[in-house]
Amino acid sequence: MLNEKNLLNMALTLYNKKRNFKETSEPAGKVNKTASKLIFVVQRHKASRLHYDFRLELDGVLKSWAVPKGPSLNPKDKRLAMMVEDHPYDYKDFAGTIPEGNYGAGIVEIWDKGTYTDIENSENDKAVKNLRAGLKAGNLKFQLFGKKLKGEFALVKLKGNEDNSWLLIKHNDDYAVATDYSSEDDTPKNSPINKWLDENKKPAKKKTSAGPKQVKK
Fold first, then answer.
1. How many Å apart are CA 7 and CA 2, to the nearest integer?
2. 105 burial class (0-12, 13-18, 19+ CB within 10 angstroms)?
3. Residue 184 covered by a domain
4. Which domain holds residue 91?
């Protein structure tokens, strides 16, 4: 009979199946529950396309969403978040290069991390129950305590679309901004990804000015 830990490890089957751990330094998929506060991490990922991976710890794994434009602190922004396979808890510390030929090949860096809880800032056991219920209902509300991301947020599942389509939305609280917000503006200029982008800039196309047309006599 399967116990709780075995069932949770099965949740990481897809994660493990997609990766060759002889080549990638990503952590192998194992469940690891924490006894302290729940954690979150946002990883900036330069794969075939630059995007952000938003991860929330729940039941020993990291529930994960790929956010193409990155999180926003402006409540007017509704950022598309595509839910992907669960990642192991130890992925919270992963930063580095995933080799070519492997799933998600490219550079990964940690953009923000911290702790989080339910919207009511409940004690841990109650928070977990509320977060489970919100995830199941497709309306997950929570508070983040990071360096860049603070305050109330929500992940809302889009109805009538693919099962993995959600929106990441900032609530209007003391940490919200009313101006345009880009997570790209909040990255160190010397980060590994920014160095790669600078080194691989495509040269600007030269404008060709057409001369005066010759008139046939």
1. 6
2. middle
3. yes
4. 4-194
Task: Classify residue 212: in a domain, yes or no.
Answer: no
Residue 174 structure tokens: 């003391």
With 0.70 as the threshold, say if the pTM is over it: yes
For strand 38-46 and strand 139-146, is the pairing parallel, antiparallel, or unpaired?
unpaired
Number of domains in the chain: 1
Of 65, 57, 100, which Cα lies nearest the Cα of 82? 65
pLDDT greater than 80 at residue 207: no
**Is residue 164 a part of any domain in this protein?**
yes
Task: Check if the beta carbon of residue 175 is closer than 8 Å to that of residue 71.
Answer: no
Q: Report the alpha-carbon distance of residue 18 to residue 173 in Å, rounded.
A: 39
What confidence tens digit (pLDDT) does each residue in 71-84 have? 999 999 999 999 99
Would you say 53 and 91 are in contact if contact means Cβ atoms under 8 Å apart?
no
Q: What span, in angstroms and rounded, lies between the C-alpha atoms of 6 and 24? A: 24
